[in-house]
Write a structure and sequence with these properties.
2 domains, Double-stranded beta-helix, globular, 7 helices, eight-stranded mixed beta sheet, alpha+beta, single chain
């Protein structure tokens, strides 16, 4: 594995498919000045500023970081990395983490417009009480394995999730599953119902006023399975589709090859959205529980 000065790169303890990238203090210190050049509003209103801070990060690695991240995220054998500051201090606040996440995303590709927030990213809290219409914020409900972008027209090649803050939290671990490790993939992929068009919609909070159609399963250029699925949003057209979705849901949730991992505050996980599914375990009930997450999803650069 390539070495990059100022970064500690290793294989994740729970899966050889996930690469850990830890950013040393010397790099974080050097990012403070270029990151301070733009406030969050500038990043939201002027898209080119996001590329400016991304270049600042890549320049500190002699342009090796972007190559490493893209080689991981596009490789079927890996397709996922976790990148985080090695040490968190008072300078690594929520504003710094938004900028760091933005820089990482813009070394991988172009973010999609997030209709839920009207920005290139979404920040949202998970708390004790919730009145939303999505599993996203429901602390005490298991968020089943899924991919992102199932209900939008945008191409969603990759997903980035950053943990901005966490207090009074027990449980809520991240769950991941690679399609090539899923015991039931072959059987369900070979079921012709999975190749039919399903109708996909979304709750009002997503601010998407249309429905789209696409199959659950497709193939990559080598004929290997790819998946686009989330349990809450498909509208089965008949008994066959309804029963297929139930088998799919059961097969994912009972998989013995799920990776369950606890992400630290400041950590960002980036995954290929075609062959990695992700979810979240329920939290242990606590009226003071709070977690803030940042999400960016988008398409690869076309070179």
């Amino acid at each position: 594995m390539e070495t990059i000065k100022g970064f500690e790169i290793s294989v994740h303890k729970q899966s050889k498919r996930i690469i850990n990238i830890q950013i040393e203090d010397e790099i974080l210190e050097k990012l403070i000045f270029p990151f301070n050049k733009f406030d969050i509003t500038a990043l939201e209103y002027k898209p080119f500023t996001r590329f400016t801070i991304a270049k600042s990060l890549d320049d500190l690695t002699s342009n090796k970081l972007a190559n490493l991240m893209n080689s991981i995220i596009r490789d079927r054998n890996t397709g996922c990395f976790v990148i985080s500051p090695k040490n968190i201090n008072s300078k690594i606040n929520d504003t710094f983490l938004v900028k760091l996440s933005t820089a990482i995303a813009h070394l991988v590709g172009n973010p999609n417009h997030d209709s839920m927030t009207g920005k290139y990213y979404a920040r949202f809290f998970v708390k004790h009480e919730d009145k939303s219409d999505s599993y996203l914020r429901k602390a005490y409900t298991n968020m089943d394995l899924h991919t992102d972008g199932t209900y939008v027209k945008d191409v969603t090649d990759w997903l980035l999730m950053s943990k901005i803050e966490e207090k009074n939290v027990e449980g809520g671990e991240t769950t991941m599953l690679h399609l090539d490790d899923w015991e039931h993939c072959k059987g369900l992929f070979n079921d012709p119902v999975g190749k039919q068009n399903f109708t996909w919609s979304s709750p009002k909070s997503k601010n998407v006023d249309y429905k789209i159609e696409h199959p659950v399963f497709s193939t990559d250029k080598e004929g290997r399975p790819e998946i686009s699925y989330i349990d809450q949003f498909p509208e089965p057209k008949n008994m066959a589709q309804g029963n297929f979705l139930q088998k799919l849901s059961d097969g994912l949730e009972e998989s013995k090859n799920k990776i369950v991992t606890k992400l630290i505050v400041g950590a960002t996980i980036v995954a290929n959205n075609y062959f990695w599914l992700h979810g979240r375990k329920p939290f242990k009930e606590n009226k003071d529980l709070t977690r803030e997450l940042l999400r960016i999803r988008g398409s690869f650069f076309i070179n």
